[in-house]
From TrEMBL:
The keyword Oxidoreductase does not apply. Residues 41-190 form the HhH-GPD domain. The keyword Iron-sulfur applies. This is Adenine DNA glycosylase. Its cofactor is [4Fe-4S] cluster. SUPFAM superfamilies: DNA-glycosylase (SSF48150), Nudix (SSF55811). It comes from Kordiimonas pumila. It is an enzyme of class 3 (hydrolase).
Length: 347
DNA sequence: AAATCGGGGGT
DNA sequence: ACCCCAGATTT
């Protein structure tokens, strides 16, 4: 029965697999560096978004040695817009460990991979299966959904993660574990979609209990999510001689290590700070005036509403964690999207 | 176990 | 507006 599941899936995969920049052609051994880089980028990120970033990174840093030798700031700059910037910091750190402690080659056990920065349960299993073609239980969001449907698992996620993993462990074949994982993900990205799955095109209908009972859309069951509060802030657009004052954010936490505009603290409150409040947070003592409009951005766990005020500086003052940057080069600095939206109020 | 951590694309 | 996405790490 398990063999039928993987056989039906792999037969479908051999006919319908997608061509992706990081996917080795059939018969060709995958490059662990390519697999690792793509898996980090694909964490909580869609294939369509990752493609251009993956190709740019390989062009700039064709090997793990090149990536390890690059300054962290240039890695963050090229990562800008992809989100979850801890991934970029861990990517760079991991490259250093691979080069310095592992002679530039990737470990070939899940436990050793799992101990590297930025590599968790999913990514370790994916590298073992896809890059080394060895048996590993690969479980991502797609696979959770497929398994939850096939077995009508009523336990909500994330509690259901462990039982799902055990099912995948048993279904994964020893012959083509990497293709099995990628086939599952292709299936989840196509027919077995979260809403309105196309069961008539699915290769596994006879293995799927939810299809038989017709309640596919009820799976996977998920724990309720809490609502996002709204934070508000005033950002500062300070200019001197064609240069704009930016800050380098602290190396950890939200947008860690990324450039941004100075602003009042992002505080959960019903109204914007009034002038007497935000004046206390300006980076310099100048004549400020408001800019019309408001920037809206949604992070993982809160909404941010920002208004902008502007001033002409008397000089390029030294400001702690601040640096002056040519305004015409703003598009090339690697500004996170949240700040791009704020800057757009000015441009 | 719960919270933190981005941003885009589909519906 | 809400959901989801080839999740990991910290609290």
């Amino acid at each position: 029965m398990n063999k039928d599941f993987s056989k039906d899936l792999l037969d479908w995969y051999d006919r319908h697999q997608r061509t992706l920049p990081w996917r080795a052609k059939s018969g060709v051994t995958a490059d662990p560096y390519h697999v690792w880089l793509s898996e980090i980028m694909l964490q909580q990120t869609t294939v369509a978004t990752v493609k251009a970033y993956f190709e740019k990174f390989l062009r700039l840093w064709p090997s793990v040695e090149n990536l390890a030798a690059a300054p962290l700031d240039s890695v963050l700059k090229e990562w800008a817009g992809l989100g979850y910037y801890a991934r970029a910091r861990n990517l760079h750190k991991c490259a250093g460990v691979i080069v310095n402690d592992h002679n530039g080659t990737f470990p070939e056990t899940e436990a050793a991979l799992r101990s590297l920065p930025g590599i968790g349960d999913y990514t370790a299993a994916a590298i073992i299966a896809i890059a080394f073609n060895r048996h590993a239980a690969v479980v991502d969001g797609n696979i959770e959904r497929i398994i939850a449907r096939c077995y009508r698992i009523s336990t909500p996620l994330p509690t259901a993660k462990k039982p799902i993993r055990e099912v995948v462990e048993g279904l994964t074949p020893n012959t083509r574990p990497g293709d099995f994982a990628q086939a599952m993900m292709d299936l989840g990205a196509s027919h077995c979609s979260p809403k309105k799955p196309s069961c008539m095109l699915c290769p596994l209908p006879r293995h799927c209990e939810a299809h038989k009972t017709g309640d596919m859309e009820n799976y996977p069951v998920k724990a309720p999510k809490k609502e996002k509060p709204t934070r508000r802030a005033i950002s500062f657009w300070l200019v001197h001689d064609g240069h704009l004052l930016l800050e380098r954010r602290p190396p950890k936490g939200l947008l860690g290590g990324m450039p941004g505009l100075f602003s009042t603290p992002w505080v959960e409150r019903p109204d914007f700070p009034v002038k007497t409040e935000w004046l206390e947070h300006t980076p310099t003592d100048d004549y400020w005036k408001p800019v019309s409009g408001m920037a809206k951005h949604t992070f993982t766990h809160f909404h941010l509403l920002t208004q902008l005020v502007t001033a002409k500086a008397r000089a390029r003052h030294n400001v702690e964690n601040g640096f002056w940057h040519p305004i015409e080069d703003l598009a090339n600095i690697g500004l996170p999207t949240a700040y791009k939206k704020i800057a757009d109020l000015m441009l």
